[in-house]
Amino acid sequence: MAQTSQEYGEWPLQRLMTEVVGSGPKSADDMSRAQAREAFQRILDGEPDRTTLGAFWLANRWKRNNPEELGAYVDVMAEESTVVAEPDADPVDCGANYDGKGRSALLGVAAGVVAAGAGTPVVVHSGDRVPTQKQDAYKHVLDELGVRTEIDPDESADMVDETGFGFYYQPAFNPRIDELAERREMMGVRTFVNTIETLANPANADVHLGSFYHLAFAKKVVETFQESEHVSPGKVIMFQGMEGYDDIRPGYTKVAEWAAGDDEDSFEDYEIETPEYGMDFEEEDLYVDDVQADSADITETVVAGERDDQFADAVALNAAFRIYARDDVDSLDDGLDAAREAIEDGSAAAVLEDLRAF
């Protein structure tokens, strides 16, 4: 992590609002990479007036940031905030929305533990009640399970190597983003920070797994990584998730894959029907009353092989995606077999036991 910026160029946020981004959704211009970098450096340094900062965030929201701008923001975050602690293992980085879920079970902990039991290391990361929704995220399910979460990045890396599953805590590995929480909450709407924090990649993983509502967002994430000089995984796999989280949506679902090639980069999308992989039910069937407590209970009982219901089927397919994303299997079907075997032979339960003991 570099030192805090002390000098700026000629583009304070107020000037950017007046001359570039502030004229409205249809007439606003995009910033140059240099302008976007300077803007976020100023924001992280706490330089802008609070009113101007709010206006700038809102203007970015209505005009919609392009990949060049987002790549610039990601690079400033990498240079001036993110603390990378790379484990010896090369895990799958799961970048779910930090502001959490409020209706459906959070399945990523169980899926990650099952994938780890099958031999695929997995990393997740979140904060604690991050704006705007401030709902349940990875941290809260892990807390409920008795897993330590408020740890420094080096401990997170050790957790990956010792158990196969690792949690990185935003205040520890991305402190200057965490310091923006109060201003983000006062905005009342999401900002570009909600997007870039999910791309921080604190374990420097070569594979990023995420979700989208619309396919265009998956394409934008890939292009953002391509624009970034510091955060550039070699493979991205994303699917339509529930509540913006990395839990695959039941039914007809789009999947996007990208891999950096030697000659040219590839981006492909396709559709799957989740009933063909055991998820033959509706999204509402995964709703719970208490996301934190119920998701922890689902995690514990699924990995122990004590459930044979919609939650067990959903965890298995989500684990299969993580195993497949890292190329540890050749197909989702093979990933599903590996996930179910990890549950049946006790490997998944052993990972959860190791996490609790860490």
Structure notes:
The protein has 358 residues and is an alpha/beta fold. The protein folds into two domains: 13-64, no CATH class; 92-357, Pyrimidine Nucleoside Phosphorylase, Chain A, domain 2. Helices cover 46% and strands 11% of the residues. The protein is globular. The model is unreliable at 1-5 (pLDDT under 50).
Derived structural class: alpha/beta
Number of strands: 7
Q: Averaged pLDDT, please?
A: 95
Compressed to H and E, one letter per element, the order equals HHHHEHEHHEHHHHEHEEEHHHH
What is the CATH architecture annotation of the largest domain?
3-Layer(aba) Sandwich
Roughly what percent helix?
40-55%
Strand content: 5-15%
Query: What is the strand arrangement across the widest sheet?
Result: 3-2-1-4-5-6-7
Determine and state the CATH class of the largest domain: Alpha Beta
The CATH homologous superfamily of the largest domain is termed: Nucleoside phosphorylase/phosphoribosyltransferase catalytic domain
Largest sheet: 7 strands, mixed
Rg to the nearest angstrom? 20 Å
Number of helices: 16
Assign the CATH topology of the largest domain: Pyrimidine Nucleoside Phosphorylase, Chain A, domain 2
Low-confidence stretches: 1-5
> What is the 3D shape?
globular
* Count of the separate structural domains: 2
What is the distance, rounded to the nearest whole angstrom, between the alpha carbons of the first and last residues?
Answer: 27 Å
